[in-house]
Hints:
Elements: H1 2-28, H2 31-37, H3 42-48, H4 52-71, H5 83-107, H6 109-116, H7 119-140, H8 148-172, H9 178-198, H10 200-205
Amino acid sequence: MAQVLKHEYRQAIVSAAKKEFYNHGLQGASMRSIARAANMSTGNVYRYFKNKEALIQAILADTLEKLDQVIAPLMVVEKTGDGDERLEHFQHQLGKMADELVDVFIGNQQELIILMYHSQYADQLVLWFKSALTSLVNHWFPNLSSNRQVELLCHMLSASIIAGLTRGFKESVNRMKPEEIRWTIGTYLHLYTLMLSAGGEHYEKV
């Protein structure tokens, strides 16, 4: 019975903290407010979580794992044939990622927005996207040697993608239907695909 109560208390804290972080961010969130919303003392909250960072990690762990499952496959590029086939594969991969990102968002709306507005985790997302894009671009253009310019380009694109997704996810909460979100995010990422493909000849000259 004691273990059941501990689990229920922990879940109550996490649920209250999720709303607090969503509404006020990490800096504005208050452990006292979280305790009040969870109907317990602040001291009891600290018995389960030593600080706000520990709470953030508990809230985001599942969402981070799901995002890793979406992004990680992009870093394992299958061998394909000519340029058209590589382009088709690249577009397919980004399209698949867009659909899966929307699925994660629909199931984890508050968590994903908390994550994107937390600089540490937002930076991690940018690095994930950078690694995935670098892998795809290097495969798409096999004559392009990997260098600092390409890595910087992919870093810039990744930061821009994450900034756009953050804005899109934030503004679509409770305002758009899943199919509308899916179309918007899919189109947004597809436009990046078109932009990358338009620079094909330039990449080969780097």
